User: What shape does this take?
Amino acid sequence: MAIERTLSIIKPDAVEKNHIGDILAVFQGAGLKIRALKMIQLSDAQAKAFYAVHAERPFYGELVEFMTRGPVVVTWLEGENAVAAHRELMGATNPAEAAEGTIRKRFAASIGENACHGSDSVENGIIETNFFFASSDAL
Ligand code: ADP
Ligand code: MG
Assistant: This one.
């Protein structure tokens, strides 16, 4: 298996509920390496651009509103099979369908406010880490 990179976003709901440390502990406990990390307030334009793939979906406006309502923590994660491993740790998009012990099962309230984002392919792991970080940010 290859060393991959993937982007995590701890979403505003999880930041509001003080779960930053809990979620980072899950990543670190699973052996994912944190290469870069920052807490930021997304602008409307950034949230719209990041989720542009969902622009035609009925929940797009609600999603942009949610993602900009408070700070998020963006993390560049790296590891063996990191994209799939991270998605597995997060659980299903809808927390009602997420497996026991996953981040979304433990910390998310609804399909919209679901605690975390994770890249969904190796290609998007590169595109999305580049969206928030310069190569020189990785330590
Ligand atoms: P994932 O985050 O698991 O990759 P998607 O890429 O399908 O899921 O959706 C992106 C985000 O849009 C979700 O994490 C969630 O915050 C929001 N979302 C997805 N589906 C819905 C929905 N039916 N209603 C409201 N928000 C949704
Ligand atoms: Mg997605």
The two ends are 22 Å apart (CA to CA).
